[in-house]
Please model this.
Amino acid sequence: MNRIVNFMKMKKITYKLFMITSLILLSFAVLIYLTLYFFLPTFYEQYKTNQLQSGIAEIIHKSKSLTVREAKELLDEYSKENNAIIYLQEKNGNIIYSPSFNFQGNTQSSIITGKTSQNEENVNAFNHSLPIQFLNERNLMVTVFATFQPIDEASQVLVRFLPYISIIVVCIGLGSAYLYSRFITKPLLYINERAQKMANLDFSENIVVRSNDELEELSNSLNEMSNNLQKTMDDLRIANEQLKDDIERERKIETKRREFFATVAHELKTPLTVMKGYIEGMIYNIGPYENRDFYLEKNHKIIEGMEQLVREILSMSKLEQNIFKIQMKETNLSNLIETIMKDLVFFASQKEITVINKIPPNLYVFSDNDLLEKAFKNIIHNAIMYSPQGESVYLELTEDSKENQIQIQVINTGVQIKAEELQQLFQPFYRLEKSRNRNTGGSGLGLYIVKQIFTSLSINYSFNNVENGIRFLVTFPQIK
Model:
């Protein structure tokens, strides 16, 4: 379809250019012909008249210092050059000299004069007489006669030759117009074809025109426009993809926000409902709730749990918004882990968990002491709380001088986690225990807080299954 359209356009523009060029050439040919026919005779006659007048004026000027016989050569030369008849005559009409005759008597002269006068009346000619003076002759007249008949004959021949001239002019004109129109329209059609592709957003081919003129400048401008348009479209495509990613990310954030508020509402609603039940039972002395001291202690534990949840939510919010100030300093990691273990040994003893501690003294890292304490307390506490009764928790701190790094690993035995759930544990409020019973697990924010802390401090970590257990590995660059 596009080829047909291009062919029609080619026919149209080539036809127009062909017709215009043909008309111009034919018009010029006709104009030249008419100019030759109408103005050439007049121009030739004027030119010939001026030439004859100037020649005779020169002869009159030179004759003042010459005799008639001495001027003979001058008169003969003038007659030959101008194809004219020149003769000298007296006032009574007797011809005393002409290049075609010798000096003659009156009778013959009269005959010549008579013939000349008859010719002068029948043809288009130049006939002019002027007085001339020689050294030994006075009162002479010089007469010049020249016919213009050859140019009239040339005009008649031009008229008869007109059909042949017309055929030649038409053939040459039409052929030239066709070749010219094809030559001019070929690069235009080529540019138009490439421009159509650009209009259809196909920038695979550039326009190549080597003509060192405006067409080459036009093709270069179109190529530059094509490149700029393609770059703009690529930028828009990238921006559009980025916008889609941003929209998708915002949707995910909005989904997480809704899930977060729903989870928080659930986490707070359940203990509040329980507390309300306890308090109403105590107010109305219903059954076992008469033992107020026992249920007041239960309420107190519930409030402490809610308080801990609020603190974790606030910590999470600060970490997400980066509104806390990181205090980077040299930290004794060995002492930090020992202090955390002393705080958590009670929880290990309750579940009969054996803690195997391999912490060498005085290993230092450059980090934020408070954030590290919060992160490792969550890691070790989770290892103790989620290990089965009577299992072990290994704590090992090692120094690798070759790699210039310090590693700490926490391994709790007797438990495995599905591979697809390992990374989900770092999502807020995610728990393996779906009932969300606070007696069998925490709020689900601990590992999420650990992730946010390590991300803020640019610390590498991993969490994976090992033989008969789970390992949490943290790597620090060594202080040099």
About this structure: The chain is about 60% helix and 15% strand.
